[in-house]
Amino acid sequence: YLLEPRNIVVTNHVNPNGDAMGSALAMQMLLSKQGHSASVIVPNDYPHFLKWLPSEKDVIVFENEKDKSESLIQTSDLVIVLDYNALHRSGPMQSTLEVFTGKFLMIDHHQQPGEFAEWIISDTTKCSTAQMVYEFAEQFDLLSFMDTAIAENLYTGIVTDTGSFRFSSTTATTHKITAHLLELGVKPDSVYNNIFDANSVSRFKLLGCMLENMKVFQSKHSVILYLS
Fold first, then answer.
1. Ramachandran quadrant class, 188 (left: phi over 0; alpha: psi -120 to 50; beta: rest)
2. Cα–Cα distance between 91 and 226 in angstroms, integer?
3. How confident is the model over 144-152, as a mean pLDDT?
4. Which of 7, 73, 96, 106 gives the lowest tally of CB atoms within 10 Å of its CB?
């Protein structure tokens, strides 16, 4: 289906996180290199610490540009759904996607996928959708299209969804993939700085307020942190 140029929309879930944004941008860049007309449309805005991602400036936020978004979706041949598997997870985009008459491709690692897509790649053992996008590219001989920018997007998705490689879903395959991403030019210190160390003064003050409110329950081995 993708052997000829298509109009494609790549999207992800409401309140996009690092995996959602990294995988969507990487997929859009891969498709564009193949000659497809591909756009990234996200349901709503995402955190400022992801605004540095390569090609981020081309992202269309559905809530802010509804008419443009709906037009692109309605005239596309394919909508690629990444990092979610039920249309209600698309928030304000749900009704537009529900009446879309083209084809869907779903790539996701969460449980209980819906049945709205013609093609479904679903695997709950994967650490991230970003890893699945890499494996999609590998399966369809697209790794030669990979460059530093695409690798940075995928690395961001993997790092954020694995808790910096701490979670049990991190496998030897995950590390092999990230090794290739490093070979493509990803600089881990730069990515970590952009994601985890780009905090504003006000954010630190807010954290201070929350820590001031911390309650410790020794007998329950529990801590509660809260903000009003």
1. alpha
2. 26
3. 97
4. 7
- Cα 68 to Cα 26, 132, 145, 178: the distances in Å are 22, 29, 29, 35
SS3 100: coil
**CA–CA dist 131, 170 (Å, integer):** 10
Secondary-structure percent of the chain, ordered helix, strand, coil, rounded to 5: 45, 15, 40
pLDDT digits (tens, 9 = 90+) for 4-43: 999 999 999 999 999 999 999 999 999 999 999 999 999 9
What is the spatial distance between Cα 63 and Cα 44, in angstroms, rounded to a whole number?
A: 6
Which residue from 228, 84, 109 is spatially nearest to 162, judged by alpha carbons?
109
Determine whether 189 is exposed, middle or buried from the number of CB atoms within 10 Å of its CB (0-12, 13-18, 19+): exposed
Strands (E), the chain: 7-11, 37-42, 60-61, 78-82, 103-108, 119-122, 215-217, 222-224
The pTM of this model reads 0.90
- Name the residue type at position 228: S
* 51's tokens: 């605004």
Looking at 34-166, list the stretches that DSSP marks H as alpha helix, in order from N- to C-terminal side. Answer: 66-74, 94-98, 129-139, 148-161
Number of residues assigned to the chain: 228
